[in-house]
Write a structure and sequence with these properties.
single chain; about 240 residues; binds glutathione; Glutathione S-transferase Yfyf (Class Pi), Chain A, domain 2; Glutathione-S-Trfase_C-like; about 55% helix; Glutaredoxin; GST_Omega/HSP26; globular; Glutathione_S-Trfase_N; Glutathione S-transferase
Length: about 240
């Protein structure tokens, strides 16, 4: 019989999450940084509970149930909801131009970083792995240049975070992907980010957030991440 109800905590925020999912981590980080209490309902993605379609018909994490029973899906929508619902946490600027600039930065990760993390893992031919690595590094140079531009703006305050000295929405949205690329493509394909001038701003940003509880509190163990991504890794054809 198919489920007719699903677990949630009454009068609370319930986050449906999977600890290793970089998207779900956005939702968790948003609540943590805003210091808003929530409960986690961990979804085993390899064996999804039969009630989960009642929460998210797309069967993806994260999803959020708010205290009034509203269900929200999509990690950036959830993170933005937290930012808007708790403005005192100042996760996200209210200025339209500053919001647009940050959206473009987040978009840069979606188009030029994340796809190539996966591509480098799923490509079997050395040639294709190399191409993915080059695209990934080109994407990181674009990220680096955007950070340099942002830090000269008044909202960037010279860095080292997107909003100066504050771990905010940019970090909530993006650090899980940097954490991922630092561990998984490095382990399986030997991809590393050079310590050169072209990547200096990126490396400065990474060093700053890597020590922040906003990052470390939600970071999976390297070995667990490596094991989890094994299933995507194509054996190299020589
Ligand atoms: N665009 C979605 C992507 C979420 C997503 O792809 N989550 C993955 C896990 S990292 C998922 O739930 N996949 C479903 C599955 O593995 O069956 C978001 O930003 O929330």
């Amino acid at each position: 019989m198919s489920a007719t109800t699903y677990p949630f905590k009454e009068n609370a925020y319930t986050v449906y999450s999977y600890a290793l999912c970089p998207y779900a981590q956005r939702a968790i980080r948003a609540f943590n940084i805003a210091k808003v209490p929530y409960v986690v309902e961990e979804i085993d993605l390899r064996n999804k509970p039969d009630w989960y379609h009642l929460v998210n018909p797309q069967l993806k994490v994260p999803a959020l149930r708010t205290p009034d029973g509203t269900i929200l899906i999509e990690s950036l929508v959830i993170a933005e909801f937290v930012a808007d619902q708790f403005p005192e946490a100042e996760l996200l600027s209210t200025d339209a131009t500053e919001r647009a600039q940050l959206r473009l930065f987040i978009e840069l990760f979606g188009t030029r970083i994340s796809p190539f993390i996966y591509k480098s893992l799923t490509s079997a031919e050395v040639e294709d792995q190399k191409k993915a690595e080059e695209s990934l590094l080109a994407g990181l140079r674009a990220v680096n240049d955007e950070l340099e531009i942002q830090w000269k703006r008044s909202s960037g305050k010279g860095g080292p975070f997107w909003y100066g000295d504050k771990f905010g929405f940019a970090e909530i949205a993006l650090v899980s992907f940097v954490g991922l690329l630092d561990v998984v493509p490095r382990h399986y394909r030997g991809v590393t980010v050079p310590e050169t001038e072209e990547y200096a701003a990126f490396n400065k940003w990474k060093t700053a957030f890597s020590q922040h509880p906003g990052f470390t509190d939600v970071k999976p163990e390297d070995a667990t991440l490596i094991e989890n991504y094994k299933k995507y890794v194509a054996e190299t054809k020589h």
